[in-house]
Amino acid sequence: MKSKTSFFDWNLLKKNVSRFAPAWAILTLLLFLSIPLPLLRGMNDEREMVYRLQTAQEILDVSYYTGIVFAFCAAMVIASLVFKYMHRDRDAYMMHAFPMTRCCQFLTNAVSGLLFWLVPILFIGLCEIGVLTVHTALGLSGLVWERVGQWLLAFLCFYGIALFSMHLSGRNVIAELSYIALNFMFLVLPMLFLLLVNCYFKGFDYVITEDLSRLSPFVNLVAVEGDRAVMLWIYAGLGLVMAVLAWVLYRFRHVERAGDPMAFSWARIAFRVCFTACLTLGFGWLLASVFGTYNGEKGDVFLPYAMIGCALGWFCSSMIVERSVKVFRNKKVWLGFAACVGVLILTVLGLKYDLLGWQHRIPAAEKISSVEIWTRGDYGEFNSDCITLSDPQDVAVVRTFHAKAVDDPALERSASELLGRNPLGSVHILYHLEGGGTMRRVYEVNLNEREAQALAALFRKPDVVVAYYEEHLADDWTCATMETYYYDDYYGVSGSGANVCTDLKALRKAMLADAAAGRNPVINFMTEDTEPDTMRIYLEKWRAENGVSKSGRLEISSGATETLALFGVLPSAAPVEEQPDSD
């Protein structure tokens, strides 16, 4: 009689369904209360149909985030249920004594867990379709199925990571901690390292970019607005890869490892290193921020606190891995701790004394194609005051400022804020180099210094200002509104009534004329013409089907006579509120 190898066992699937049916029912109930029920309440509103449809669309939009959070939590819970036998000695030996291959057990349990999510979200989708059908709003059914597909892709990502975590560890608690670490550690570690660099690197720009946030699937899917469809497919593929790796771990995993914090020797090393790195950088930076000087010199006290965090991280992780507090007698543990301290000291000394020359690097003039400078907002924002310089004399002014900021503490002030600088007093420099490279630096400046005043003069150069307004007025705006904001000691900041201009061609011509005549510099914190009373022009581009599709904001000077005349406002026409009589 020929033997047959099976890759799927229906009896095991039925057993999983019957055993974990309560968890399945609880998940379905929570999803129903969180998504279809609010949709039903919104559609039963007594307002007009157009408002109910708008409310329904808003609820479906918010349900994306609700489903992602549920997928993140349910993935680990489901994986823990179907593979919990691997973390108990008796259960592990019993399950592996059955006449089933490990491949059959893994595939059957993994598919069982997938069904525990697939069936509830399909039920939720059908409930939403039913609500929309009753209220004749089937036009939103496409959005419903889009959400169901997004939740499934997100679950594939989180479920694959959860399966990998379950097979990596022999304890359920450690597996759950590993799941959280795998979702956030690759974002947290770079962030902590950037904070370390920020303590010693003068001019370093601490920015959490969108590319960096992609290292955490949960953060990217919830917090980043972008092409979610692409990222969902990428993360789903990552989840499938992690599931395959989990199957590989299962093939080589020893049954007697049930109960061990880490089932593999390389995982024990990785756990110690990652745990120590996070505690070293986090503990050191946090205490340096709390106990550092008020001038922001966190670098002076970072190393001692970081060494304390390193000791706590290394010895605590060793106790967890060894399941014993008697790790201080082990010479290998002390050698590992010495290696961690050595790497920490070398890293700090390299950053503090700029051994690689990164802090003092200033691009050569012939290698610079253009320079962008701004003091407000961030790069690419419409209301930032970013100006572009390509004239060699202007570039030379920037390089002079840069050289003085690197070497002279009187010009470059140390940061005192949580993330290392005061955004209202920072000068951002972005060099565009020949060949396509870039280099960005940020310095806090003393406005009384000569180099800072020379840099501020660039924001008043007519040709630079004209180029700035040409770029910002290049879009096909349909409406412009001007509001005056003034300041007084009693009321604080107040605003006047709005003046509207619909002749955008005349507005563009007037603003460029004021800029060319030097009457309207680019407003920034370094410009001498900046006043407490400011006038802002709000630009809008309308779409007939859904209202405003784009908007922007520009500030103008009180000396921009031609621009103000278009709005019927004189430079001295800022309203003054009557102050009430004091008692």
Structural topology:
Elements: H1 10-19, H2 21-34, H3 36-43, H4 49-82, H5 89-95, H6 102-134, H7 141-168, H8 172-200, H9 210-213, H10 217-223, H11 228-252, H12 265-291, H13 299-322, H14 331-352, E1 368-374, E2 387-389, H15 392-407, E3 412-413, E4 426-433, E5 438-445, H16 450-457, H17 462-472, E6 479-488, E7 492-495, E8 499-501, H18 504-516, E9 534-543, E10 547-556, H19 561-566
Antiparallel strand pairs: 1-2, 1-4, 3-5, 4-5, 6-7, 6-8, 6-9, 9-10
Helix pairs in contact: 1-6, 2-6, 3-4, 3-6, 4-6, 4-7, 6-7, 7-8, 7-11, 8-12, 12-13, 13-14, 15-16, 17-18
Strand content: 5-15%
**What's the end-to-end separation, in Å?**
107 Å
Q: What is the count of helical runs?
A: 19
Biggest sheet layout? 5 strands, antiparallel
The quaternary organization reads as single chain
Query: Helix amount, in percent?
Result: 55-70%
Element-level helix/strand string:
HHHHHHHHHHHHHHEEHEEEHHEEEHEEH
